[in-house]
Design a protein that fits this description.
This is non-specific serine/threonine protein kinase. With 608 residues, the protein is an alpha/beta fold. The structure holds adenosine-5'-triphosphate (ATP).
């Protein structure tokens, strides 16, 4: 078989592979010399493939373990951050393979003892956060050139073998079921490489205990645990009675912040939700800012901005003036150390007028904080839905149009910067669009899908409320377009898409009702938000944007616009109607009839 046939067989064996659409035997070959024609490949000068890098592509399905063994020149293979299943792919025939990345998938079963036999070039093996069971295979222990091994977050068991490789610089076996004494050759690694294994002991963890001592310890630990538990229960009870927790009230399509408390942080190691963070280091990803450290943030007075589905956000005012926002993420425990740093470095390189830049971050296994600038004008959600204070400017049509254009431009930039991510934003909603002092929109909470624990992401993140995920467990590069469509309808109507508050799937019936209510009201002329209607001579342009929103929300993905099409239509929109534009409400009926829309349908000069 040719490389093209092998790859296409591999593609066809997957259940979800939409990002591999240019893998096609009848088109260009995978490589032309060292140029790759197919996504996810790197080619040698002789047209063979040396790297297969299929990361963050939403791939699902069970890999046929033998399928790639014929790509004999492969030096690096990565399936990181997908949802692939099945047993460990067969790699030992890939004699030149140096680096293997399978982390953050659902591979399972025992890793065969001979899985890495004869792989004399093997340097890095990353198997973290899968469901592998059994022991570490001996063939891995005898891979002489091994420098990095990450196994954390599996269900591996047995004793840790004494890896003899002197150049092994990264080793992580945390959060498995390993037991027994840690071998001397691994004792120099940090304790965090071994935590989360109930049975491991010895340097760098506490010394192993004799069984008599163990029994005594169990008794002592039980007593201490009971006492501590009682104290925690009592403490929580007192806290619940005294704490003012900010809550959003979404009734009647309005968001009201109740009891937002300003709270002085009492002790230097306590954050305002009562949990502690250690005094570790803040990593800055931007060099155009004054430096501060975690202590400065903690010492500053903090105001709770709100608790979202991914974590809680606090505003802190630094002693030398600037206000920062710290978001503490709660559901990122599965992401590995290196990966997290790598992703943060990538976020740090992003720069676009419509993205809120990441300034710094803090990483601990159980604690991830992202620091950004505080944006005075708050979020689009609060502007659209909160009760408008007298004297506060209302969002007129030109402002809303500019917000939609900015959001679209920010999305285009994310799509360009994350060509292999299925969900470059993933969590686009009105509370994640902030407005600067000129009402220019700034996207936030973008590109987080690779970091958030998969189950939680699927419960709460906006992209996973799309019809394709609800019905077919799929997300594609058109999924963020769906969220853009919902956001456009929300901006035009001032109505809150209620289903985004629901956990898990199944909200789409409500969303369908919501979208239908939008269109049905259109020909009674009541669809648009009252404030927007105060601007005169723009109804036709508003209707065009409404159609665009509808085309982005198309249930059927084939018919749904790609981002490029949607953005082109949005960019054409103007602040004032063109009087020659003969446009009538009958067009709305066409959209509502929900037939497939084409570009021709969208020449907005339809006569009544
Ligand atoms: N940098 C910022 N400047 C000003 N307000 C912000 C900033 N970041 C977040 N906010 C606001 O703080 C509130 C809480 O934000 P947070 O991101 O924690 O939750 P969310 O956006 O409501 O939900 P989710 O966690 O699902 O994204 C929101 O109203 C948000 O718009």
């Amino acid at each position: 078989a040719t490389d093209a046939e092998i790859l296409v067989n591999f593609k066809n064996s997957l259940s979800t592979n939409s990002l591999l659409s240019n893998w096609n035997v009848s088109g260009n070959p995978p490589c032309n010399g060292s140029t790759n024609n197919w996504v996810g490949l790197r080619c040698n000068g002789d047209g063979t493939i040396y790297k297969l890098q299929l990361e963050n592509m939403g791939l699902t399905g069970t890999i046929n373990r033998d399928i790639l063994t014929q790509l004999s020149k492969l030096r690096a293979l990565s399936f990181m951050n997908n949802s692939l299943e099945g047993s460990m792919p067969q790699v030992k025939k890939l004699g030149s393979l140096k680096n293997l990345f399978l982390s953050n998938n659902s591979f399972s079963g025992k890793i065969p003892e001979d899985a890495f036999d004869g792989m004399n070039s093997l340097r890095e093996v990353h198997l973290a956060h899968n469901e592998f069971t059994g022991g570490i295979p001996r063939s891995l222990v005898s891979a002489q050139k091994l420098t990095k091994l990450s196994l954390e977050g599996n269900q591996l068991d047995g004793k840790l073998p004494g890896f003899p490789q002197e150049n092994l610089t990264v080793f992580n076996a945390a959060d498995n079921n390993f037991e027994g004494q840690i071998p001397a050759s691994l004792a120099h690694f940090s304790p965090s490489s071994f935590t989360g294994n109930k049975g491991l002991c010895g340097k760098p963890l506490p010394a192993c205990k004799s069984s008599k001592k163990k029994t005594m310890m169990i008794i002592v630990v039980t007593v201490v645990a009971v006492v501590a538990l009682s104290a925690i229960v009592a403490f929580s009870y007192i806290r619940c009675r005294t704490a003012k927790t900010p809550k959003f009230n979404y009734s009647e399509n309005k968001i009201v912040m109740n009891g937002v408390g300003k709270k002085e942080i009492q002790s230097s190691d306590q954050f305002s939700d009562g949990k502690t963070v250690d005094n570790g280091q803040l990593h800055f990803v931007r060099y155009d800012r004054g430096r501060f450290d975690l202590q400065d943030l903690l010492k500053a007075s903090a105001e709770v901005l709100g608790s979202g589905t991914l974590g809680s956000s606090y505003k802190t005012v630094l002693s030398d003036g600037p206000s920062m926002v710290v978001k503490r993420f709660r559901h990122m425990s599965n992401v590995g150390n290196e990966e997290f740093h790598e992703h943060m470095r990538k976020l740090g390189t992003l720069s676009h007028p419509n993205l809120l830049p990441l300034v710094a971050y803090y990483y601990r296994k159980e604690d991830k904080l992202l620091v950004s600038d505080f944006i005075e004008n708050g979020s689009l959600a609060s502007r659209l839905h909160a009760k408008r204070a007298p004297g506060k400017p209302w969002l007129d049509w030109p402002t809303r149009l500019n917000i939609v254009k900015g959001v679209a431009r920010g999305l285009v930039y994310l799509y360009k910067e994350f060509p292999t991510l299925a969900l470059p934003h993933g969590h686009l909603k009105s509370s994640n669009v902030l407005l600067d002092d000129t009402f220019e929109p700034l996207l936030t909470d973008y590109a987080l899908v690779p970091l958030v624990n998969r189950d939680h992401a699927q419960q709460v993140m906006v992209a996973y409320k799309s019809p394709e995920f609800t019905h077919s467990d799929r997300t594609t590069r058109k999924t963020d377009v769906w969220s853009l469509g919902i956001l456009i309808l929300e901006i035009l109507t001032g109505k809150f898409p209620e289903n985004y508050l629901k956990q898990g799937r199944g909200g789409d019936a409500d969303l369908a009702t919501w979208i239908n209510s939008v269109v049905r009201e259109e020909w009674t002329g009541e669809v648009f938000d009252m404030d927007i209607m105060r601007t005169k001579n723009c109804e036709k342009e508003m209707l065009k944007l409404l159609k665009t929103g509808m085309c982005c929300c198309e249930w059927n993905m084939e018919n749904r616009w790609a981002l490029k099409e949607a953005v082109a239509k949005i960019e054409e929109l103007k602040e004032r109607d063109n009087d020659n534009d003969d446009f009538s409400n009958s067009y709305a009926r066409e959209v509502y009839s929900s037939r497939a829309m084409t570009d021709d349908d969208f020449s907005f000069s339809v006569n009544g």
